[in-house]
Write a structure and sequence with these properties.
homodimer, alpha/beta, Rossmann fold, five-stranded parallel beta sheet, four-stranded mixed beta sheet, 8 helices, 45% helix, globular, kinase (chains A, B), Guanylate_kinase (chains A, B), cytoplasm (chains A, B)
Chain lengths: 205, 205
C-alpha cells in the first residue's frame, strides 16, 4: 500500500513573498516533492521554458481545459489566464509524491474545494507596514496601482481562517524551515494516514 | 497578547524508545520548551535529583494530590504512583512556554481528556519484530514478563486513532527531527492561533 502524497498549497496576499520562499524551498525538498507547473496564456518571457516555468497555451486551448474540468484552479489576471492542470496533480499524488503549488489566494480557495485534504499555508508579511514597503520596493507601482494592491492585500488577511497554517515571512530561511516542518508534520498526521496504519496493524496480527 | 504554549505529549507502547527520543530531543528545543517533571512515590535511584528527575512524594502526599485534582494524569505501576502535576503544566503554558511530557499511553489519554488541545504523538517501533528484540535486549525479562510486555505493546497499537501524530522510531535522529517538525508546525496552526491572528488583523486596521 502506497502512502498518498500531500498537496501543499503556499499562498497569501500579494507582497508576502510567495515566489521568494518557494524558490528558496525547492533545493531543500526531496525528490519525492514536485513543484506543480501552471498553464498560462501569456507570452513566454526570455529564458522561460515550456513545461518547466509554464505550459504555454492559446486562449482557446485554455478555455477548452476549463470546460473539460481539467483546471484545478484558474484565474484571469490582466487579460491572461493562469491555472493548475488537474491531471498532473492527481497522477503525481497517487504515485505517493507530494505536489507543491504556489498560487494566489483566489486559486488556493478553489483548490480547497476540489481537494479538501490539501494543506493550505498562508504566508504573511511580518506587518502591514512591511507589506507596504515591499510593494513600493518593486518600483513599478503608480499611486493608483499601489493603493489597489495594498488594499487587496490587507483585505485578503481576513481569509486566514480558511487556511491550515500561517507562516510569517520575516526571514526567508525561517519561513522555509517552517514550511518544511509543516510538510513533515502533515506526513506524520494520524488523520491523514489512518487507513495506512490500520493496514500495518492488520499485518502485525 | 501572549501566544499560549503547546502541551506536547510523547507516548507510545513500551519498547518504542520514548525515553531515548526524549533525551535526544531536549538539547534541540529552545528555552521556550520545558520538560515536565513527574511526581513519584518510588525511592530515588542513585544520582536522581528532587525536582529534576522527579518530585519524590510519600504515598499519602500523592493520594492527597489526586484527591485535590492536582494530577493531570497518574498511574500505579508495580505498587508505586507516578503522575504529572497539573499546576506546573498550567502555569507554564499560560506564560507562553511549551510543556513536553513523556508518559505511558494510559496517562496520555487521560491528558487528552483534561487538555483537549494538547498534541499527542504516538511513537512506534519500526515493526513488531523490532519491538520484540528491543524488549529482549533489556535483558531483564523472564519469559512471563516478556509475554506480558509484548502482548500489552501489540495491544496498545490500536489506540493510534486517538493520537494526532505517529512517529516511527527507526532512527533516533530522524524521530527527533519529526517531533521537532510537529512542534513547529503546530505553533503555525491556524486553528490553534485564530484568536491571536484576529487580534493582529484588528491592530492592522
Amino acid at each position: 500500500m502506497v502512502q498518498k502524497g500531500l498537496l501543499i498549497v503556499l499562498s497569501g496576499p500579494s507582497g508576502a513573498g510567495k515566489g521568494t520562499v518557494c524558490k528558496a524551498l525547492m533545493p531543500h525538498v526531496t525528490d519525492n516533492t514536485k513543484l506543480s507547473v501552471s498553464c498560462t496564456t501569456r507570452n513566454p518571457r526570455e529564458g522561460e521554458i515550456e513545461g518547466v516555468n509554464y505550459f504555454f497555451k492559446s486562449k482557446d486551448e485554455f478555455r477548452q481545459l476549463i470546460e473539460e474540468d481539467q483546471m484545478l484552479e484558474w484565474a484571469e489576471v490582466y487579460g491572461n489566464y493562469y491555472g493548475t492542470p488537474r491531471r498532473y496533480v492527481e497522477e503525481t499524488l497517487v504515485k505517493g509524491h507530494n505536489v507543491f503549488l504556489e498560487i494566489e489566494m483566489q486559486g488556493a480557495l478553489q483548490v480547497r474545494k476540489k481537494f479538501p485534504d490539501c494543506v493550505l499555508i498562508f504566508l504573511v508579511p511580518p506587518s502591514l507596514d512591511e507589506l507596504k514597503s515591499r510593494i513600493l520596493g518593486r518600483g513599478s507601482e503608480t499611486e493608483e496601482t499601489f493603493n489597489l494592491r495594498f488594499g487587496a492585500a490587507a483585505d485578503e488577511m481576513k481569509y486566514i481562517s480558511q487556511y491550515d497554517y500561517v507562516v510569517v515571512n520575516d526571514q526567508v530561511e525561517t519561513a522555509v524551515e517552517k514550511v518544511r516542518a509543516i510538510m513533515q508534520a502533515e506526513l506524520c498526521s494520524v488523520a491523514r494516514n489512518l487507513e495506512y496504519y490500520n493496514s500495518l496493524i492488520q499485518e502485525g496480527k
